[in-house]
Design a protein that fits this description.
The chain has 319 residues and is of the alpha+beta class. The chain has two domains: 112 residues, 3-Layer(aba) Sandwich (Aminopeptidase); 161 residues, Gcn5-related N-acetyltransferase (GNAT) (Aminopeptidase, 3-Layer(aba) Sandwich). The protein contains ten helices and 14 strands. This is GNAT family N-acetyltransferase.
Length: 319
């Protein structure tokens, strides 16, 4: 078995194998959107057999995190797989652990990625924990918030609501709310444009509420089935009216598209969670997905992560 980092030209095989394992039809354009253009560095470790057949992959997307009042490098683990042959062949049985540990060795630490995290379902969660590599921080529940869309009628777009991507508004809101968040992915304008603009086959609805000349709330919505998903919800923590307008915009979008509910994730912002409950949002634990992570840097103390971590649905690759 051969372990090595991704090389330019591997993307055809990697994406085809991903589609085979997960029964998807992802295009190469979407692969490039996720992992970057050919010129950008890739953080992908691969296992091959002696015949050049791909056995397993451990991959991550680099991000900046705001960690206890400082900005550090982190990465979200995505698209991890091992092919059936790697799970049944004794010769290839170490492929999954091999790519995981080699990824850690090459790219993680205080000079590399300070934190790795992902949102595995039950089966990969068990595999990662049994490996002994992901027991440092306990796996964490994913809180879901949801609310039925009220009927009938369509409301008008209110004054102060602007639609479309707005990186300057995201910059201003991130500056206003980051001190309320102890451990979170940096959500500035560059992040919003990278994450929610130009993805093939995906449509995101950006809405920003302005009051008294300042952006007060920024939401990114997507339609999935009969639900309006809010992927992001940046709020200044002050204007309750702005939050209500943003929720109403999600409802307006849902009515136009025949949806029956608003749904999203929120963890680590008790002020916003309290406001959502006051607006009749219900809360429940996701039945399948958990957060799992590992620190490679003393500046991200593992014992502080459970009480500090902030995330939304947009932190996953499920929307």
């Amino acid at each position: 078995m051969i372990l090595r980092p991704f090389r330019p030209g591997d993307e055809q095989t990697v994406n085809a194998t991903f589609n085979e394992v997960f029964r998807q039809t992802r295009s190469l354009d979407e692969w490039y959107w996720k992992f970057g253009t050919p010129e950008e560095p890739k953080y992908i470790m691969l296992a091959w057999d002696e015949n050049g057949q791909l056995l397993a992959q451990w991959a991550a997307v680099p991000l900046r995190i705001w960690a206890f009042s400082q900005e550090l490098r982190a990465a979200q683990v995505v698209d991890v797989f091992s092919r059936k042959i790697a799970r049944t062949s004794l010769r290839a049985a170490g492929a999954y652990l091999g790519v995981m540990r080699e990824f850690h060795r090459q790219w993680c630490g205080p000079e590399g990625f300070s934190l790795l995290y992902g949102f595995p379902s039950r089966r990969p969660l068990e595999l990662d924990q049994k490996s002994g590599e992901y027991t440092q921080i306990p796996d964490l529940a994913v809180p879901q918030f949801w609310r039925p869309i009220r009927r009938p009628g369509l409301s008008r777009i209110p004054l102060g609501l602007r639609l479309g991507p707005d990186s300057a508004a995201a910059d201003a809101l991130w500056a206003a709310c980051k001190d309320r968040l102890s451990l979170a992915v940096v959500r500035d304008g560059a992040y919003f444009l990278r994450r929610y603009w130009g993805r093939p086959r995906a449509q995101y609805h950006h809405a920003v509420v302005w009051r008294n000349g300042k952006p007060r709330a920024y939401g990114v919505f997507a339609i999935q089935g009969r639900a309006v998903l809010w992927a992001e919800l940046l709020w200044d923590g002050e204007s309750q009216v702005a939050l209500e307008i943003l929720v109403e915009e999600g409802e307006r979008l849902g009515k136009l598209r025949g949806c029956v509910e608003l749904r999203g994730w929120l963890r680590g912002d008790p002020v916003l969670a309290s406001q959502l409950r006051a607006l009749n949002w219900k809360e429940e634990e996701h039945p399948e997905v958990r957060w799992l992570g590992r620190s490679f840097d003393p500046r991200v103390p593992p014992e502080r992560v459970p009480d500090s971590l902030y995330f939304t649905l947009g932190d996953s690759d499920l929307v």
